[in-house]
Amino acid sequence: MAGTAPAGLALAGPTGAVLAEAGDVRELLTRTELDRAGALRSAGDRDDFLAAHALVRLCAGRLLGRPAQSLTVVQSCGSCDRPHGRPRLVEAPGTGVSLAHARGWVAAAAAHGPVGVDVETLDGHPLDQRVAEAVCSEKELAALRADDDPQRAFLRQWVRKESLVKVGAATLDAAAGLDLPVYGQEPPRWRGWRLLDWGGERAVGCVAAREEMRLRLLG
């Protein structure tokens, strides 16, 4: 419809499926990124890193209508000279991008403004009550206690908070004071930010953005 703002795009999926779709990651990633991946001791961690950094290019390329190979992703934290922190596109600095990886799953997002994405895998472990109390509000803790699967419920809130941290709307130090809507009970909005949730048997995730986001799960 004329006048409708374009939507951003989020992609997520198992690491293996993402690597299969990305092809030769050496054609996509910078030397700095390849060196960072090579420094990781675990083969699984290396694959997760490579997949996430490839996926954010695929995501941004589809949003912008450009080949993924033409996009350069750089990272900086503002506190040191190490190449980590919030990612950005050299060729399209006004486009927001974000990436995440967690033990066999990766996610990426690209939008016309700020965007943050997070993903967490479900490992079958019970909820760590001390961790939950450190990062959840009293309302959220009450919802966790009432849920049939407290760990999944906790991770659903956690990925929301992480995605908001990545757009600069919150900090992890103040996570417990970030009183978000309870998953499945209230509209997924927070102070003007749209929260796009997803989840399955193996992973849960969330994207935070000002604009509408489209989601595609790979694999």
Automatic annotation (TrEMBL):
Entry EC number(s): 2.7.8.-
Keyword Transferase among record annotations: yes
InterPro entries per record: 4-PPantetheinyl_Trfase_dom, 4-PPantetheinyl_Trfase_dom_sf
Sample GO molecular function, one term: transferase activity
Pfam family, one: ACPS
Keywords: Transferase
Domain of life: Bacteria
Residues in 4'-phosphopantetheinyl transferase domain copies: 114-169
Entry keyword Lyase: no
Name under which the protein is recorded: 4'-phosphopantetheinyl transferase
Protein source organism: Streptomyces avidinii
